[in-house]
Specification:
This protein is an alpha+beta fold and about 150 residues long. Helices cover about 40% and strands about 20% of the residues. It contains five helices and seven strands, in the order E-H-E-H-E-H-E-E-E-H-E-H. Helix 1 packs antiparallel against helix 4 and helix 3 crosses helix 4. The chain is globular, with a radius of gyration of 17 Å.
Length: about 150
């Protein structure tokens, strides 16, 4: 039987709540500090390996919040530049998965961990709920448990 899911009636309110949850992540601006050739020399951080699924990151940043997608490049499906405390980072879906990319991965690992933590919060807030109000993940896990116990 198909379940009915719904988003909050006021999407603008949802956007505001998500932006508050992921703050200080923001769209990149002219004031954001970037290194020369950052787009081509960005390094994958270890923390970025624990981001939510690529489609949830894309939905959150591009579809819901309107961050700019720089488009496709060789071995890159999408690339979203972000500002985190005035410094540029990239959230990208590459050949080997989604990740957080920084100018210097080792020295910026702490910031990357915080970015991942905040994106997880944003994704959790942006998930639709079923009509009883419980999160989808709880619904899916309860269905899985029913199958496993039968």
């Amino acid at each position: 039987m198909a379940e009915t899911y719904c988003f909050p009636d006021d999407v603008a309110d949802l956007k505001d709540r998500v932006l508050k949850a992921i703050s200080p992540i923001a769209p990149i601006t002219d004031e954001t500090k970037t290194e020369d050739k950052f787009l081509f020399n960005a390094q994958r951080t270890d923390a970025g390996r624990s981001l939510p699924e690529y489609y949830l990151c894309y939905f959150l940043l591009v579809e819901l919040l309107g961050f700019k997608n720089l488009g496709q490049f060789e071995k890159i499906s999408w690339s979203v530049p972000i500002d985190f405390n005035g410094v540029a980072f990239l959230i990208e879906h590459r050949k080997f998965g989604v990740g957080v990319f920084a100018h210097d991965a080792k020295s910026q690992e702490g910031e990357a961990k915080e970015i991942v933590k905040r994106i997880h919060k944003g994704v959790k807030l942006a998930r639709p709920e079923n009509k009883t109000g419980s999160p989808i993940r709880r619904l899916l896990s309860s269905e899985k448990n029913k199958v496993e116990t039968q």
